Amino acid sequence: MRMYDIILKKRNGGELDESEINELVRGVTDKSIPDYQITAFLMAVFFRGMTARETAELTLAMARSGDMMDLSGINGVTVDKHSTGGVGDKTTLIIAPIAAALGGKAAKLSGRGLGHTGGTIDKLESIPGFKTEIEPEEFIKQVNEIGLCVAGQSENLAPADKRLYALRDVTATVDCIPLIAASVMSKKIAAGSQNIVLDVKCGSGAFMKNPEAARELAKAMVDIGKSAGRNVTALITNMDAPLGNAVGNALEVKEAVSVLCGQVKNDLYELCVILAAHMAEYISGKAYDECVSDVKKVIENGSAFEKLCKMITAQGGDASALENTEKLPKAQIIHEIRAEKSGYIGAMNAEEIGMAAMILGAGRAKADDKIDCGAGIILRKKTGDYISENDVIAELYTNKSDPLKEAEQRFMNALHITEAPPEKLPLVYDIIK
Ligand code: URA
Fold this sequence. Notes:
The protein has 17 helices and 13 strands. The chain has helices spanning 3-11, 18-29, 35-48, 52-63, 91-101, 120-124, 136-146, 159-169, 177-191, 211-227, 249-260, 267-284, 288-300, 303-314, 320-323, 350-362, 404-414; strands spanning 78-83, 105-110, 148-152, 195-202, 231-238, 246-247, 333-338, 343-348, 376-379, 386-387, 392-398, 415-418, 428-432.
């Protein structure tokens, strides 16, 4: 079978069969297919799409292209959660400990941030000593002992996805529903959990800019899970503004702790309760409303926070930094941004705010860039808030003064100030099971 024929078939709108898909993924993984043919194929998929069967077969072939985690040694209900990427999204730091406190086994492999989106591994590494490279036996042992482990993805987890994603990133083929669905689900299936809750972001800070596209992506991922024998719940959630008030690694850890301890009850808290309750449905089999009150209980009684501390200690980190956050990395420069005029914040472009945080040092423009764990942004006002001239809207945190001007400009450009209050958008648009 020639790669030329596979490209031609897809270019002409044909449906690939299983052997063609397996051949394609084999050639992507062993590098026998050159970049130019893979990118031509990706562009053909971008315009022609894929059927549900093709997408599921592509996903399974990508999952099997590398290590498949064997979680059969874990005693209990395995749960995983994945977000399609957003700004200020620190939900894993809150939800995984909640799932463990409810008796679930949260076995989670996470990634690093790129561009305007952050990554859980970077956030956790801002805790002194915390290690994310864990051998599979140690991973299983920790999940059995304390109910959770958040580790970095091994180099060999879905390697076909790594090559495809890198090529999509430079050929304008990232925002393609079958390719995103296959990319996300190949890693989830290879990671091994039986029950998966997906947070499909929708809005200015997400790949999917409107609820219809996000719904289509969510449905594609739920269908893939079904064909792989996994239980999947997908929530379509708002990413028109950053989630919570902190953007940037150590700043987000601090905010996650305050939500996990029940001290802050903002949009981040609300979303975490909802996501965790959907995980709890798999763990306990109880009705959703009961799950919501169970989730709130483990936040209020401190048992979820205790689980996070246990995980930090088990992975070599200094858990005392969660209570004494002075021990977390801190930026030397804190620059206030003040309102130039009065009005409502009608909209915030979350992607632009993520880019402003990246410029300050909190993120990476390229995969091998170094990040500054103390850098980021604290939002003092969010969409819907009224601001008077000279009010502090945000604080920029950084250790280098050069990018301050550009970051401030980018932040200001992300704001849309209106005379009337904006319509309140829902936090969750839809749930697909
Ligand atoms: N996250 C992924 O892992 N893959 C995509 O294609 C998009 C978001």
